[in-house]
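Hey, resending since the last one bounced:
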Amino acid sequence: MGRKVVYQTDLEGIPLFKRGKVRDIYEINGKLLIVASDRISAFDVVLPTPIPDKGKILTAISCFWFTKTTHIIQNHLITCDVDDFPHELIKFREK
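The structure tokens again:
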């Protein structure tokens, strides 16, 4: 059985702010939720074959560096801990 890929997200009831080449951005309570997908972009084109877990890994790397450098420069990160996400997102936790 192949691993599930996240080519595109659909958080029903949460307003989609923008869908980029590899990220989907939602607006919740005046803040942005940035979801990294498994889509691949090269030469300004989204390729047809996603890479399983690419979004999870990209998010983990981003969280690491935003947290590691916060004493050097401010950034936009609020949290990477799903337990701290707004209650509107609880139903999407396992997606």
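Residues 63 and 81 are 10 Å apart (CA to CA).

Sorry for the duplicate.
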